[in-house]
């Protein structure tokens, strides 16, 4: 029994190392074995063995001595992106919303306590923030989408996430105290939508609202973001939230009658 436990532990560590190498290669935008080993502070031989295995299995490609992720990950990404039929219902709605507002529109989900960008649409005047499909961020407390997700998921789940993460101060407006965040989430529940008053990036504001299934569970959150000088006055506090809530309601009806 002890030998089986030791073998299982070794296998789990091996998987963890493989995943760390994949993420490191993504972060480095391709790299040599030595560069990955230095980044992870692991023996070069260990990294080499893992990377050679990944290449043989088709998950890495090698040009000269540079390894990079293969197109196999595109296939996996497309599968995940389209796994939930709701995601395909969201796409035309946020494209239309981006065209209508001229801003950046995002559909964001939550997974393992992080925001995940599932769909992005860019209006004519959209500001790029460096987000991309599939990107994961911890900043649930500092974004309109993140706060919207926290507010409308089951309170036990929301509390577990909040208690397990740091609340770093990203701008002078970021909420960094848990008690204040809990109070803020209550306000969001009452209002139906969340605001980001330059809490994540100075000069950038956003509004977000949740998309729910018929049973009340949250599928994700739709946000519209733009420069503070455009996101102001009644447009920001009244007109835009009403528009977003309307789009969320349309998607919820699509979900029911698809």
Automatic annotation (TrEMBL):
Top-level division of the source organism's lineage: Archaea
SUPFAM superfamilies xrefs: GAF domain-like (SSF55781), Winged helix' DNA-binding domain (SSF46785)
GO BP: any one term: negative regulation of DNA-templated transcription
Keywords annotated in UniProt: DNA-binding, Transcription, Transcription regulation
Keyword DNA-binding assigned: yes
Domain IclR-ED: 72-257
Name of this protein: Transcriptional regulator
Organism: Natronorubrum daqingense
Lineage per the UniProt record: Archaea, Methanobacteriati, Methanobacteriota, Stenosarchaea group, Halobacteria
């Amino acid at each position: 029994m002890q030998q089986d436990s030791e073998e299982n532990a070794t296998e789990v560590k091996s998987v963890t190392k493989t995943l760390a190498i994949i993420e490191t290669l993504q972060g480095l935008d391709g790299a040599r074995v030595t560069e990955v080993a230095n980044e992870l502070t692991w023996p070069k031989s260990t990294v080499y063995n893992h990377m050679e295995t990944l290449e043989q299995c088709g998950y890495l490609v090698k040009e000269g001595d540079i390894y990079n992720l293969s197109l196999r990950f595109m296939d996996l990404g497309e599968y995940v992106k389209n796994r939930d039929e709701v995601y395909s219902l969201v796409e035309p709605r946020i494209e239309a919303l981006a065209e209508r507002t001229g801003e950046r529109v995002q559909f964001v989900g939550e997974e393992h306590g992080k925001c995940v960008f599932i769909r992005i649409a860019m209006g004519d005047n959209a500001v790029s923030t460096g987000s991309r499909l599939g990107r994961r961020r911890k900043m649930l407390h500092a974004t309109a989408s993140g706060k919207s997700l926290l507010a409308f998921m089951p309170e036990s789940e929301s509390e577990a996430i909040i208690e397990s993460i740091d609340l770093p101060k990203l701008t002078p407006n970021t909420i960094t105290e848990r008690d204040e965040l809990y109070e803020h989430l209550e306000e969001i529940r009452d209002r139906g939508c969340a605001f980001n008053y330059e809490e994540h990036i100075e000069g950038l504001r956003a509004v977000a609202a949740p998309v729910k299934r018929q049973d009340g569970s949250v599928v994700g959150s739709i946000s519209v973001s733009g420069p503070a000088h455009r996101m102001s006055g009644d447009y920001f506090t009244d007109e835009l939230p009403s528009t977003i809530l309307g789009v969320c309601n349309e998607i919820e009806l699509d979900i029911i009658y698809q």
